[in-house]
Amino acid sequence: MVQSPPALRRSDSLANPDWRPRLESLLAEGVAAGADLVEVFLERTDSLGVLAEQDTITSVSPSFGMGAGIRVFRGHFDGFVSTNDLSEAGLLTALDQALGMLGLLRSSHSLNAYEGLPPLQDWAVTKGDWLTQCPSLQEATTRLLEGTDHLNRLGQHLQVRRGSYARNWQDVLVVASDGTHAHDIRLHQSLGLNVLAADGDHRASLGRRYGSHGRPDELRQWQAEESARDLCDSAATMLRADYVEAGQFPVVLANRFGGVIFHEACGHLLETTQIERGTTPFAEELGQEIAHPAVTAIDEGLTDGAFGSLAMDDEGMAPQRTVLIENGILRRFLSDRAGEIRTGHGRTGSGRRQSHAYAAASRMRNTYIAAGPHTPDALIASIDKGLYCKSMGGGSVGPTGQFNFAVEEGFLIENGQLTRPVKGATLIGEAKEVMPRISMCANDLELAAGFCGSVSGSIFVTVGQPHIKVDTITVGGR
Amino acid sequence: MAPGTTPSEFPAPLDGASLRQRLESLAKDEGVGRWDLGAGRSTDTSVQVDRGDAKQMKGAQRSAITLRVWNGAGLVGITSTSDLSDSGLARAMAGARAASDFGNPDDVPAFSPLATAPLPPLDQPLQEPLSILSLLDTLKEAEADLLQRHPAIATVPYNGLSQRSSERLYINSDGACRHQELTTASLYLYSRAEEAGRKPRSSGAMRVAYGAKDLDVAGCVAEAAERTIAHLNYAPIETGRYTCVFSPEAFLDLIGAFSSLFNARAVLDGVSLSKRESLGQPLAVPFLSIRDNGLHPGNVGAARFDGEGTPTQCLPLVSDGVLVNFLHSEATARSFGVAPTGHAGLGAKVSVGPDWFEIGAGAGVPGGAEGLDHLSGTGPGVGSEGLVVIDSLSALHAGVKASQGSFSLPFDGWWIQGGESRSIEAATVAGDIRTVLNSLVGFEGLAKLTPGGLCPWVWVDGLSVTGEA
Asked: pLDDT tens digits for A12-71?
């Protein structure tokens, strides 16, 4: 009988009360040494990656781990130490290192000044069986092979067909000397289909990714044939597409992953980490108009099942629905604990990190531009010559606010109509210039799963938007 | 995982003999006949500063293993973990054994035949770590020095000084045992300059060494300042085709992004532009040679062996414009009928990747056109439109389609026209890598040693540049 790798035992949960006295002792030691605040982040992880290529499972990669991140604040400064060693000695050594960074030393005096942790706020009460509810290895491999089989049946000129599945389970306990004592379990699953179509000198590589949080059945409910058909249609269209003409054009960005434009062009610049670095042009613009009045933008961690949703952030705070921009006016920044201390902007439940090896930082969750009044067709009809970006690749933003992102599937807009497919476009611009140019938002808001890499590692996020129109932007091409 | 009470070393060094003994016992229990293991342990300290203050100080202790097993049917499974306790190893063995039921019968890796071959000598002096407060003082001084280099340089938003002590281990059930200890340090300074009424500009530099006390801090400050100041006088550029001159760093980045050209795993998977029969065929202009040389003395932190225990080596990839070798793991080498080259990871499906490129003209071969001087803007084919110097490329993760051969990338650089140099406000460069490799005009100057490889300035004819003018 084929078995899945052995899973962690439920009794191993970080909610185990045996942890409490040791963590209280750590916090007490840190506070007695003179720290303003001591935070301990504990995690256990259990992950699985599966890769199907053509009609074969070519890689099954289970992994599991554990670790702690200890952060000590004194005034505006902090020290952070991470370790895989969760023994009492290991944690104390990590604490000593973090204290030492701030010139503090543990002493045996005044340990009684610390009052101890409040009762556990346990967000994981109903999540204990998430891991066991996930598909077995047998199920996962079978579903992936269904996906690549659909690609084979529905596609043409497909030289490479790949399906991938990743399951990331994380058990998290956060304690801090300010009374934080919170536990959660997270379950992120993502699915990808990728193809390389080739015919003579023509080549097109395309992919689709789907992701969810807190839905153990996600892989079972995946509409594999629909996903494969969507991808095959795109591959057939793009295989012989011409390279895009370079220049300045109006563009329409499709909904779902089109939201990467707001994520890169503006979202990162509304994180307090950017205020701390002095790399956002919006630091002094609260209450000011920074975008077209058509734009309302939101970041939240609440949408059921969305990749960027969370019951609590990685500092133990419940997430909020944060309206960043309202009708073009800047309303809030995304803030974590350090951001609040250093910039004065209140925490928004946005302290996030890839793992215990990173200190939390203000990061996005589910970030999107709100729906507007127009139909998608109205946006396209308003353009004589421009570019329609149906599918986006990745992007980035630099220290001067200049952003870029790649267009995977594009179409020319000519006289208000979509015409020829084009490839090879990269859009670049600056946030302060592009945000006032988002002049129309359609009524078809949708979200898409993605990964965001930044100062605290790679995290699960959602981007989203309705179809939007940018009046003009630089389109890099040939 | 209830809290344990056993004191531990911090962090515990890797003990190959103990790991072997424990794994042999566990393998017997699981009915596993063959196994191998890659392990790593590291201790890091790093600091960042912000206008004279400590911004963040970090420390990290990490340990991790990847265990690979062959089951009774000869299929392979793996598991990775950071839990090196007895229970963690037992779980890893059971997990790898379970995963092996899904091993690919068409592509079964084996132990590298070179896993016990002699390792090449490398001069990698181990250095004692400095205290974190010493690192902090050094970085504060470097930041202060950089800030006073020009009135427009107001901040150094991205900076860091870090040091690492690490060790790697590879052992297998046939008795192979590889071990390497290493210390490294790195410094990066990325400054931001802004003049009244103008857009902010930024650039930076980095240095690596075997220890923090050996870092070329002054050189890093000087280079960061020079590069940042050189971008203050900026203007938009007109969209068009230009002769482009890549800095050594930018060209190394571009070649690295298209390294699937040389990757046997990618060839076998059908995602490389190269094919089996591409070996021996021209790939580039006749004066281009590329070697992958992880053993170069400038490759600070070089690995002496790859994930399968195969020794690192210097491997010619392109000689005088002809593709002569691919990078291999054990499995891909077996498929091609050659020896592994020391470029493997460790996995059920073993990845392959490059170490450190040396790019330039082959021995005794002229490096293309002569008289190239990007500073004066003179060279063959440079007309009134001038030439574009590409200092650094961005967003390679998004703008490169390696399996298609195309790229469209934002860059920082200068427009040299009529003997005058102006930084380019914002632009992208686009093209096809095969066309680029066959459109090299020549190499300018001696190859420069960079953290990522060795390369001279590279002139390329007729690339598409999109600007905002």
From this structure: 789 999 999 999 999 999 999 999 999 999 999 999 999 999 999 999 999 999 999 999
**B132-230, CATH topology level:** PmbA/TldD fold (3.30.2290)
Question: For chain A, what are the domain ranges?
Answer: 10-238, 242-476
Distance CA A262, CA A266 (A): 5
Inter-chain CB pairs, A–B, below 8 Å: 283
Outline where B179-242 has alpha helix (H).
217-230
Q: Which of B388, B372, B390 is nearest to B380 (CA)?
A: B372
CA-CA distance, B372 to B364, in Å (whole number)? 19
Q: Where are the alpha helices (DSSP H) in A12-136?
A: 19-32, 88-101, 130-133
Residue A141 and residue B102: Cβ atoms within 8 Å?
A: yes
Torsion angles phi and psi, residue A161, rounded to 5: -125, 125
- Are the Cβ atoms of A4 and B98 closer than 8 angstroms? yes
Contact A390, A410 (CB under 8 A): yes
Q: Are A217 and A199 in contact (CB under 8 A)?
A: no
Q: What are phi and psi of A261, to 5 degrees?
A: -65, -45
> What residues contact B228, with CB distance under 8 A and at least 6 apart?
B150, B153, B191, B192, B193, B201, B202, B203, B204
Q: Which pLDDT belongs to residue B4? A: 36
Interface of A with B in 265-284 (CB under 8 A): 276-279
CB atoms within 10 A of CB A69: 26
End-to-end CA distance of chain B: 62
Angle between helices A88-101 and A19-32 (to 10 degrees): 20
In this structure, the number of other CB atoms found within 10 A of the CB of residue B40 comes to 16
Helix orientation angle between B16-30 and B86-100, rounded to the nearest 10 degrees: 50
B contact test, residue of A50, A400, A423, A433 with most B CBs within 10 A: A400
Distance CA A36, CA A234 (A): 55
In this prediction the ipTM stands at 0.92
Distance from CA of B353 to the nearest CA of A (A): 17
C-alpha dihedral (B443, B446, B447, B449), degrees to nearest 10: -150
What residues pair up with B161 in beta bridges, in sequence order?
B47, B187
Region B264-281 average pLDDT: 97
User: Which residues make Cβ contacts (< 8 Å) with residue B270, sequence separation at least 6?
Assistant: A159, A160, A196
Q: Which CATH class is domain A10-238?
A: alpha beta
**B181 near B303, Cβ under 8 Å?**
no
> Treating both helix axes as pointing N-terminal to C-terminal, what angle do A224-238 and A137-154 enclose, rounded to 10 degrees?
40
Instruction: Tell me the pLDDT tens digit for each residue of B86-126.
Output: 999 999 999 999 999 999 999 999 999 999 999 999 999 99
Residue B145's nearest CA partner among B223, B54, B230 is B223
Question: Given CA atoms B401, B402, B408, B411 in this order, what sign does their dihedral have?
Answer: positive
pLDDT of residue B11: 57
Cβ contact (<8 Å) for B82 and A65?
Answer: yes
**Start and end residues for every CATH 3.30.2290.10 domain found in chain B:** 132-230
The residues, any chain, with a CB within 8 Å of residue A39's CB and separated by 6 or more, are: A70, A71, A72, A73, A174, A175, A176, A177, A180, A315, A337
Instruction: Quote the CA–CA distance of A448 and A211 in Å, as a whole number.
Output: 8
Strand partners, A253: A389, A468
Q: How far is CA A149 from the centre of its chain?
A: 30
Asked whether A378 and A387 are in contact (CB, 8 A), the reply is: no
Q: Over the stretch A47-64, which tens digit does the pLDDT of each residue have?
A: 999 999 999 999 999 999
